[in-house]
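stuck on this:

***
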Amino acid sequence: MAKIDTRRSDLVAKTEDQLGEELGNLKREAFNLRFQAATNQLEKPSRVREVRRDIARIKTLQSSRSRDAAAK
């Protein structure tokens, strides 16, 4: 559980630009992982799940920030 909290706190500390860049990197990695899985070259299958969840964390944080900004 502490591992997830650490990742979340790291993401909360980042700016919108940094989050966007991180999201792009994760999407690129997810794309590459899908190809590796299709060709049976995937070394760490659990990484697919981690990347998907990290993408979801960033998108959730971005939508939360945009909602907060719109409410002000």
